[in-house]
């Protein structure tokens, strides 16, 4: 199957996660007023989704290794769509959190299937390039998501945003059934006992190099999720910007991600993906140091926004290179490896995001310092990573 077509379909699939995260961000004030809750408590619905998105991958990954990518992916799309419809009908915070958790379960089964399908088809630097192409395509979703949310608010109410998400999930199910799975090269079905599927996690956990890259992914994603969780507060409450201006500034983060992603592809011909990860993680950390200094000194909005755009946009180079490195050593357990990567990323980042919403003081300086702390941890791990990741010489069962 041509890589462009594969990347297009998988990019549109994995875009479901960013859409579910970002599309309703402009509606936070509306949801808070409608449900009679504080602005920060609306962030709990985002944290609940992200945490579930991580934990449920621990089940989805081994199940996809055992029963195949298609049933797990399609089941996830159906659960996600149903959860989205029920969120649109929620009239209390508890109901909204419950159905966002259901959405997270469906989203997890989708999220874990995409990197597993990539690893089924390609490996090494080819995998990094394909992950990069998928990322470039899926960047459209988070860039457009706040604008779509603002449009839904202009046309009706916040409930419409979740009905739009449900419709997108159903559309992807039909598109994948017709255009993707009939063209994938066959993957032998595993007869591995379910007990072994659980113990296979130990193989990944014991692989020191893989776990280092998992740690980098977790901390960099935590940096981004802290911003996403508090982005509405930063721009709409702290600086008093409109929905439209907020959407433009949010889209600027994605535009910078896409630019770095495009630059990353030719760089892969000269440098290993591990070397590029190190450089891009350091760039993200330096941008956050500048952000903390700017906020502490009371700098202007344009400088604060610039630092945020560079820091969050760095994900465009970090994610595809880091995922290829983390997945490289497990060609026969790609679902399990992807599940551990995704579960660690979303669960830990979700916990950090929840803690910042519940226990953290709502100020731009504390949010900036929290982002910098996560990024500094990623730099420490990246500096100790190997300069190049060689392909595994022995098969992992």
Would you kindly provide a written description of the structure presented here, covering whatever features stand out?
It contains 18 helices and no strands. With 397 residues, the chain is mostly helical. It has helices at residues 3-14, 16-22, 28-35, 39-55, 57-67, 69-89, 93-121, 124-138, 140-155, 159-179, 194-205, 208-238, 243-267, 273-296, 301-313, 315-327, 334-358, 364-383. 81% of the residues lie in helices and 0% in strands. The chain has a single domain (3-182, 194-383), classed as Up-down Bundle (Growth Hormone, Chain: A), CATH 1.20.1250. One of its GO terms (molecular function) is xenobiotic transmembrane transporter activity. This is Bcr/CflA family efflux transporter. It comes from Marinobacter subterrani.
Helix-strand string: HHHHHHHHHHHHHHHHHH
What share of residues are in beta strands? Answer: under 5%
CATH topology description: Growth Hormone, Chain: A
The total count of helices amounts to: 18
Number of strands: 0
- Main sheet properties: none
Number of domains: 1
CATH superfamily: MFS general substrate transporter like domains
Give the fraction of residues assigned to helices.
over 70%
By CATH, the architecture is named Up-down Bundle
Query: Using only CA atoms, what is the Rg?
Result: 20 Å
Structural class: mainly alpha
Q: Note the gap between the termini.
A: 26 Å
The geometry reads as: globular
User: Mean of the pLDDT scores?
Assistant: 85
Low-confidence parts, pLDDT < 50 over ≥5 residues? 390-397
CATH domain class:
Mainly Alpha
């Amino acid at each position: 199957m041509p890589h462009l077509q594969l990347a297009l379909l998988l990019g549109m699939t994995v875009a479901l996660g960013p859409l579910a995260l970002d599309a309703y961000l402009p509606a936070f004030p509306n949801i808070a007023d409608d449900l009679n809750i504080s602005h920060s408590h609306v962030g709990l619905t985002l944290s609940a989704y992200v945490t579930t998105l991580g934990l449920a991958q621990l089940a989805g990954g081994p199940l996809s290794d055992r029963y195949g990518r298609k049933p797990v992916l399609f089941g996830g799309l159906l659960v996600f769509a149903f959860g989205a419809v029920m969120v649109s009908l929620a009239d209390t915070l508890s109901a909204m959190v419950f159905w966002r958790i259901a959405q997270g379960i469906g989203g997890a089964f989708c999220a874990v299937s995409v990197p597993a399908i990539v690893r089924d088809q390609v490996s090494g630097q080819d995998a990094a390039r394909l992950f990069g192409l998928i990322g470039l395509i899926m960047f459209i979703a988070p860039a457009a998501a706040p604008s779509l949310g603002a449009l839904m608010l202009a046309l009706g109410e916040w409930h419409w945003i979740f009905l739009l998400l449900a419709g997108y999930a159903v559309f992807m199910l039909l598109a994948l059934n017709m255009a993707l799975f009939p063209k994938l090269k066959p993957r032998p079905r595993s007869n591995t006992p379910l007990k072994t599927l659980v113990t296979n996690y130990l193989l990944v956990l014991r692989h020191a190099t893989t776990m280092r890259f998992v740690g980098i992914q977790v901390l960099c994603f935590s940096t981004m999720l802290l911003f996403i969780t508090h982005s509405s507060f930063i721009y709409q409450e702290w600086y008093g910007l409109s929905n439209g201006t907020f959407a433009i500034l949010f889209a600027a983060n994605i535009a910078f991600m896409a630019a770095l992603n495009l630059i990353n592809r030719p760089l892969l011909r000269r440098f290993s993906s591990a070397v590029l990860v190190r450089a891009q993680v350091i760039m993200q950390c330096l941008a956050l140091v500048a952000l903390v200094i700017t906020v502490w000194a009371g700098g202007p909005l344009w400088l604060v926004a610039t630092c945020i755009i560079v820091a969050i946009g760095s994900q465009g180079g970090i994610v595809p290179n880091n995922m290829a490195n983390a997945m490289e050593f497990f060609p026969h357990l790609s679902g399990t490896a992807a599940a551990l990567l995704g579960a660690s990323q979303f669960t830990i980042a979700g916990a950090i995001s929840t803690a910042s919403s519940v226990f953290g003081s709502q100020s731009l300086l504390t949010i900036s310092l929290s982002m910098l702390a996560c990024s500094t941890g990623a730099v420490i791990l990246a500096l100790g990573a190997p300069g190049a990741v060689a392909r595994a010489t022995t098969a992992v069962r």
